[in-house]
Amino acid sequence: MYPTFDLKGKIAVVTGASMGIGYGLAKALAHAGATVIAAARNLPALRQLCADIQQEGGTAFAVSLDVTNVPHIHAVMEQIAKEHGRIDILVNNAGLGANHPAVEVTEADWDTMMDVNLKGLFFCCQAAGKIMLKQGFGRIINMSSQASVVGIVDHAVYCTSKGGVNQLTRVLALEWASRGITVNAVGPTFTYTPGTAERLDDPAYLQGVLDRIPAKKVAEIKDVAGAVIYLASPAGDMVNGTILLVDGGWTAQ
């Protein structure tokens, strides 16, 4: 028996799908055969994403989702399950990043990032998890970061939020493993997207990053998508509670 990465017939929800890595993950999941539910606050961008997917022969639907509104999260997940019959895959991609020296972090800075990166992610897991538990099947992939396992200067809040994602991933994997659900995380290094281009197109900044990556290159969205598809597919059935780092060797040092 050979491993398969085929996602045909699966319903995959991707949060934060309106831009950057989320946009690319949604397209990659559709290419692998999944019906993609693209969720975010920016509906015009989601509609463009769905049009792109459909033009490539895939199937996708746009859904408005605010991950800082817990009742809304539950209502949206329930509506998706009602309309599509189930939720097989959840990719928790919605997230924020910001640079703040620790002494300058305000309470608002802390709350804003934690509300999205950790609190919102947990309640998306909970809402989809309730549906998956009834089904007896589910694949949850949480987007973490290499910054979840190493310190990054001026990223105290971000690193803390992603470290929390890792621990949450492990606990949910333990709680739900016997019910047919896997919960894993993917931790990318610096990844080239329209949102990171301003920094990574600066030769000095880029060199500082490459000095820390043994592979001597930053990640592309396709690199992250490969990890997500693996964990979502039958090939990843026995992988549970792990943090899959896509970092070119950064954290091996």
Automatic annotation (TrEMBL):
Q: What is this protein called?
A: SDR family oxidoreductase
This protein's record includes keyword Chaperone: no
> Belongs to which family?
Belongs to the short-chain dehydrogenases/reductases (SDR) family.
Domain Ketoreductase stretches: 10-189
Gene3D superfamilies in UniProt: NAD(P)-binding Rossmann-like Domain (3.40.50.720)
Name one molecular function that GO assigns to this entry.
oxidoreductase activity
Return the Pfam families for the record: adh_short_C2
Keyword annotations from UniProtKB, A to Z: Oxidoreductase
Database matches in PANTHER family: 3-OXOACYL-(ACYL-CARRIER-PROTEIN) REDUCTASE, 3-OXOACYL-[ACYL-CARRIER-PROTEIN] REDUCTASE FABG
Keyword Oxidoreductase set for record: yes
**Which one GO biological process term can you cite for this protein?**
bile acid metabolic process
Name the lineage. Answer: Bacteria, Bacillati, Bacillota, Bacilli, Bacillales
- SMART domains, A to Z: PKS_KR
